[in-house]
Design a protein that fits this description.
Oligomer: heterodimer
Number of helices of chain A: 11
Radius of gyration of chain A: 37 Å
Helix content of chain A: 25-40%
Largest interface: A-B, 78 and 77 residues
Radius of gyration of chain B: 21 Å
Largest sheet of chain A: 7 strands, antiparallel
Structural class of chain A: alpha+beta
Structural class of chain B: mainly alpha
Shape of chain A: elongated
Largest sheet of chain B: none
Number of strands of chain A: 27
Distance between the termini of chain B: 27 Å
Number of helices of chain B: 10
Shape of chain B: flat
Bound molecules: protoporphyrin IX containing FE
Distance between the termini of chain A: 40 Å
Order of helices and strands of chain B: HHHHHHHHHH
Strand content of chain A: 25-35%
Chain lengths: 569, 328
């Protein structure tokens, strides 16, 4: 049997029976063992090395090796191992903490750059990771498609003839039946046909096979993996992901420039984003007010006004966690929230130079937040403020300023002040959440930095007539993640097909059943032998043979006696 | 005291009682294993006639032993075995009641934090074991190991992981959570039976290789069912659990799409779910591959099981990610 890579079981047996008299098929143990090995698919782990010198022979060998079952196992193992480092090392474009890779590089100046060069900070888009899964897909296609062709052939071929020694098969039973052989065979055949076996009736026996659906399921499963990979690829080539913070009362229009962070795929049409816009009318959050989980978030809700097209009708929608807004193929998800204290600043000349909400970034579960206020229009010097916003303030001498509860019970704004040059003029991009202090000097009172805690409505006056800041009120802001994935539908269809194919291929047992009748004895009773043989690694369906024998005309109930293989205890 | 608090309290008590009865059942299984001094002649598939008069049994592939010694089962060991099974069932009933009471107390599916997940996953493991037992599968030697794991995990759950009854953070408030986690829990329960059978298979196989005649006769391994039998139990369990796990991963992806806008983002939880899945796929392939079937395949299955637990313990406690279970 040279035809053995992932050999189609039907074929293997058919070949064996064709090449030698059927009677011999299962006679000697060695042969029957080999038959089993070949008949249960994919067991030929490695193809023999080519004997010839030719390039073609070697190419054939290489292809067979690649598409062999052992290679599949090794590649799967390699894929599992290759996925591990990505979960232990910080990843670019994956992390929810974008600074993690930079920090890791700073902390590990020796190994870090090497890991970086080898792609360990982008494991899932690294060439070696791609090499493994692409090889796996090639191997799989090369393995599974030929099986499909053989499935097609064997589903139309007859089940092979019965081996001489039925007792050697997985399950075997014998019974004495008081009926004519022909009648018995007909009864057995119709019993099996009713159970959707493909049946052929010979002179003294019936052969039947069932479970082709298993291979079909297997094929569907493997090919859906390919389709799924295509879906994923389309999504990452043409889709995008972005993040934006929107304060109550403010709007966002879906153009690239308005994003705080925008990650397109290599082929994304960033100019052709779906042109919708939203206004955050109101944001509400509800927290656990009592009990041991006091302060845990319970409900967030963002009330939006949406214009699906510029100038289109305004529409009120509510976006919650797990309930995104969808505009065409683009989805907008609520992922977080926080506070934006509304302040107004009057400079040394007495002019209002800043007024509005400022986003403070939460850094713990009770929404203790930190942030900065930049006032570039201040005269005679620019002004900067830095500090904390605490929705429920407490100043712990040890832990510093902390919020005790995420809702607005006792909101306070704690600020220190700077004067000088904010460094905005040189054009270098700057974080809105940090002050560049190179050209700033801290406002002092004596030896102490000037610092104030403000409640809403309170005002602080900088020493030396440099200006005032009023904490007017508190707004909330919401974090949105906006995503567009054109491969999503394909992936979903592939996933459903994958699951169906897998379930079918694991639930259906492909098997053969043979029934043989020996000539009626003097008493008019015939000896019936029934045997089944699993073509998969699962044993034949329990009880199948006994119910077959019980269905024969003239069968005594419980008259079947099992082979030693399934004796009772 | 309001009803939910009463229910939560009741749930805690039921779980404590279940732990106590599990421990007793485990001791009974251990005692039974120690008492059984002879190799039980053939893994006696216990044939239980089903409705059609057929047999829900696993035929034994081994040829009859040379001496053809009949099955003399130690009557006392047999009685202990029945007691152990009865205790397991009792503990299971208490456990079910505990989980249900918790669900009623919190008014949602009771698997929203590590404590609840652990109680539910151990429940699934016992359920899977009992199903195998009831269907006449030769799993009684798995009993002591499955119950040891269940008792240990429940013990950790009520001490280290305990979280009082409460609502969920919004990200977990989704019916996909119910579906995704339920599938993960069921798969985990059946994987546990698969892992226990695989562990015993590997033990038995090693002992077989050591003893003359290729059949272990001495020690603990000698009293275990034949390697082929254990391997088949393991294979059956994995064949069932693998599609369920596949479903769990896919449902998780749909949930992720619903809450974060991408169905797959290589978050550590997702990554380890993927690793688990790939390892079990490798196991299933290895079972059809000459040179890998048996021992190496067994190790792959155990690696898959380890990955499953690492995803729950390691990723929650040591790696930060988006999944809200993180940090208990
Ligand atoms: C992403 C990679 C793959 C996954 C997740 C996967 C998964 C599976 C699963 C779950 C089964 C069912 C196992 C069973 O029936 O016991 C299976 C069967 C099979 N796979 Fe794959 N597979 C993959 C790649 C491959 C490759 C690369 C090959 C060929 C080299 C292959 C060939 C087969 C064959 C021949 C079977 C039938 C085995 C049997 O009947 O026992 N698969 N695969």
């Amino acid at each position: 049997m040279t035809e053995s890579i992932g050999a189609w079981p039907g074929n293997a047996v058919a070949e064996a029976t064709a090449s030698r008299p059927a009677e011999d098929t299962l006679e000697d143990t060695a042969l029957s063992h080999r038959l089993e090995e070949a008949a249960r698919p994919g067991v030929m782990a490695v193809p023999p090395r080519p004997t010839g010198q030719g390039l073609v022979a070697w190419a054939r060998w290489a292809w067979r090796t690649l598409t062999s079952m052992r290679t599949a196992v090794l590649l799967l193992l390699a894929l599992a191992l290759a996925a591990v480092p990505g979960s232990l090392l910080p990843q670019r474009g994956v992390a929810f903490d974008p600074g993690a890779v930079t920090r890791f590089l700073a902390d590990n100046p020796v190994v870090g750059p090497w890991l970086d060069r080898l792609g360990f900070f982008e494991v899932y888009s690294s060439p070696w990771f791609a090499a493994i899964y692409l090889l796996l897909m090639v191997s799989m296609t090369g393995c599974v498609l030929p099986r499909a062709a053989r499935l097609w052939q064997s589903a139309r071929a007859e089940p092979p003839r019965a081996p001489t020694n039925l007792a050697r098969l997985d399950d075997h039973r014998r019974a004495t039946v008081a009926a004519e052989p022909a009648q018995i065979l007909q009864a057995a055949a119709s019993h099996l046909r009713a159970r959707r076996f493909r049946v052929v009736v010979d002179d003294d026996s019936v052969r039947a096979e069932k479970g082709y659906l298993r291979e079909a399921g297997n094929l569907v499963f493997h090919l859906s993996l390919l389709a799924l990979l295509f879906g994923v690829a389309i999504g990452s080539l043409f889709g995008f992901e972005g993040r934006v913070i929107v304060v109550e009362g403010a709007s966002f229009t879906n153009t690239r420039l308005q994003y705080d962070e925008f990650t397109p795929g290599p082929l994304t049409d960033a100019a052709g984003l779906s042109p919708f816009s939203v206004t955050l009318d109101d944001f509400t959050a509800r927290f656990e007010t009592a009990g041991p989980q006091r302060g845990s978030a319970r409900d967030f809700q963002a009330d939006l006004t949406v214009l699906r097209t510029p100038g289109g009708p305004a529409e009120k929608v509510t976006v919650e966690v797990n309930h995104p807004l969808q505009v065409e193929g683009t989805k907008m998800f609520l992922t977080g929230h926080g506070y934006a204290p509304v302040v107004s600043v009057i400079d040394g000349r007495g002019q209002t130079v800043f007024s509005g909400p400022v986003v403070f970034v939460p850094f713990d579960g009770n929404l203790s937040s930190e942030g900065v206020i930049k006032v570039p229009d201040g005269q005679p010097t620019q002004l900067g403020f830095e500090g904390f916003f605490l929705p429920t303030a407490s100043v712990d001498p040890a832990a510093g300023p902390r919020s005790l509860y995420p809702d607005l019970v006792d909101p306070q704004l704690l600020l220190t002040a700077y004067t000088g040059d904010l460094g905005l003029g040189d054009g270098a991009p700057q974080s809105v959440f940090r002050l560049d202090k190179t050209d700033l000097s801290q406002v002092m009172v004596g030896d102490e930095p000037f610092a104030r805690a403000l409640r809403p409505g309170e005002l602080m006056t900088l020493p030396g007539g440099q200006g005032t800041l009023t904490f007017e009120s508190v707004s909330r802001f919401a974090n949105f993640q906006i995503a567009h994935d054109p491969g999503k539908e394909l992936s979903l269809v592939a996933a459903v097909a994958l699951l169906l194919g897998l379930t079918v291929s694991l639930a259906v047992r492909r098997r053969r059943v043979w029934v043989r009748v020996s000539a009626a004895s003097a008493g008019g009773a015939a000896t019936v032998e029934a045997a089944s043989y699993a073509l998969t690694r699962r044993e034949p369906v329990p009880g199948e043979l006994s119910s077959l024998l019980a269905a024969l005309p003239g069968a005594e109930p419980g008259g079947a006696d099992a082979s030693p293989h399934d004796r009772e205890d | 005291m309001p009803i939910p608090n009463l229910l939560a309290e009741l749930s805690d008590r039921l779980i404590y009682s279940a732990i106590a009865v599990y421990a007793l059942a485990m001791l009974a299984y251990a005692y039974q294993a120690a008492r059984r001094s002879h190799p039980v002649p053939e893994d006696a598939p216990r044939l239980e006639p089903d409705a059609a008069g057929a047999h829900a049994a696993v035929p034994d592939p081994q040829p009859p032993t040379a001496g053809g010694r009949p099955a003399i089962r130690d009557a006392a060991a047999r009685r202990t075995e029945r007691i152990a099974a009865a205790l397991t069932t009792l503990a299971f009933v208490l456990h079910v009641a505990g989980v249900v009471a918790r669900g009623l107390a919190v008014g949602r599916a009771p698997w929203g934090n590590m404590y609840e997940f652990t109680t539910a996953a151990t429940l699934a493991a016992t359920a899977a074991y009992l199903v195998f037992l009831r269907r006449g599968q030769p799993v009684r030697d798995l009993g002591v190991w499955v119950l040891a794991l269940v008792t240990l995990c429940l013990g950790l759950a009520v001490t280290v992981l305990y979280t009082p009854a409460g609502d969920l953070v919004p990200a977990l408030n989704s019916y996909w959570l119910v579906i995704h986690v339920a599938a993960a829990i069921i798969a985990g329960g059946v994987f546990t039976v698969g892992a226990a059978a695989t562990g015993l298979y590997l033990t038995r196989r090693r002992a077989d290789a050591r003893d003359a005649g290729g059949q272990a006769t001495r020690g603990y391994a000698g009293r275990l069912p034949a390697g082929a039998t254990l391997e088949r139990v393991a294979h059956t369990a994995h064949l069932f659990a693998f599609p369920v796990w596949t479903f769990a991963v896919l449902a998780g992806a749909i949930w992720a799409e619903d809450s974060w806008g991408r169905y797959w983002g290589w978050d550590p939880k997702e990554t380890w779910a993927f690793i688990t899945w790939v390892l079990y796929a490798a196991y299933l392939h290895a079972q059809s591959t000459a040179g890998w079937r048996g021992r190496k395949a067994g190790w792959l299955a155990l690696a898959g099981y380890a990955a499953f637990w690492f995803n729950f313990v390691g990723v929650n406690l040591f790696i930060t990610g988006l999944h809200s279970y993180a940090g208990v």
